[in-house]
Amino acid sequence: MISVLILALNEETNLPRCLESVRWSDDVIVFDSFSSDRTVEIARDAGARVVQRRFDNERDHRQAALRLPFKHAWVYNPDADEVAPTDLRDEMISVVQDGSRKEVAYRVRFRTMFMGRWVKHSSLYPTWVTRLFRPDRISFERTINLRYIVDGPEGRLQNHFEHYSFNKGLNAWFEKHNRYSQHEAEESLKSLSDGQWSLAGLVARDPVARRRALKELSFRLPCRPLLRFAYMYLLRLGLLDGLPGYHYCRLLAIYEYMIVLKMKEIQRRQRGLGM
């Protein structure tokens, strides 16, 4: 069978639906960062084990979570705002029970839900993320927007999970991306100073490598917020997602603008100037 690991901080809005979608597991752990809302109560009422740890950074926090005593060799690791449909559940159970498979981790695609619909084109679909794995074969790089390092072969699952990243409202989304943009600005400046980047990554066969190379390229382009909007809304056909697609692409452009401004702030402060 499969253990389930959910990292949470003040997720009383999202957690009930996430927990309901993993009721098939007999080993559900909510790794809580000392929530101040009803997250812990909701988790315990649903029969989940609760383990608490103060959050320091995403890499170390997730690494600590992987050291928990899981009941099973395989772990499904959804975020609290994700829902696993039954077809994904069935596929996960099938692959871990197949003794002929050599994979130690699996990537899964997801459907980003916004304003009541799947914004397929606006959300860079398909994006493959690591969700099912053997915890002893996983480690991480970077302290935000983690890179999963898998010690062994990876596979891909055919079914999707659903991602409700706006369930807690736009205020929560902006607060989260305000934090992320600071780290992204620091990572962007580090990448620019290192100078280690090649156009070859843009044509790599691995879609994860291509996306990483595209992100590195974006650090080096002028007018990043405008280009991000044009890329998502026009080239990636976000306009086919209707009004939700337009708003979603505008939000991504705003996030890009936050990163650019914070890069400028860091550079000015390094020169002893104010913002």
Report on this structure:
The chain is an alpha/beta fold. It is 41% helix and 21% strand. The protein is built from eight helices and eleven strands. Strands 1, 2, 3, 4, 5, 6, 7, 8 and 11 form a nine-stranded mixed beta sheet that branches. Strand 1 (2-8), helix 1 (15-21) and strand 2 (28-32) form a beta-alpha-beta unit. Helix 5 crosses helix 8 (242-270) and helix 7 packs antiparallel against helix 8. The protein is globular and about 55 Å long. The N and C termini lie far apart (54 Å). The mean pLDDT is 92.
Order of helices and strands: EHEHEHEEHEEEEEEHHHH
Taking the sheet with the most strands, its summary is: 9 strands, mixed
Structural class: alpha/beta
Structure summary, number of beta strands: 11
Write the layout of secondary structure elements.
Elements: E1 2-8, H1 15-21, E2 28-32, H2 39-45, E3 49-52, H3 58-66, E4 74-76, E5 82-83, H4 86-97, E6 105-114, E7 117-118, E8 128-133, E9 138-141, E10 147-150, E11 154-163, H5 170-194, H6 207-218, H7 224-235, H8 242-270
Parallel strand pairs: 1-2, 1-4, 2-3, 6-11
Antiparallel strand pairs: 4-8, 5-11, 6-7, 6-8, 9-10
Helix pairs in contact: 5-8, 7-8
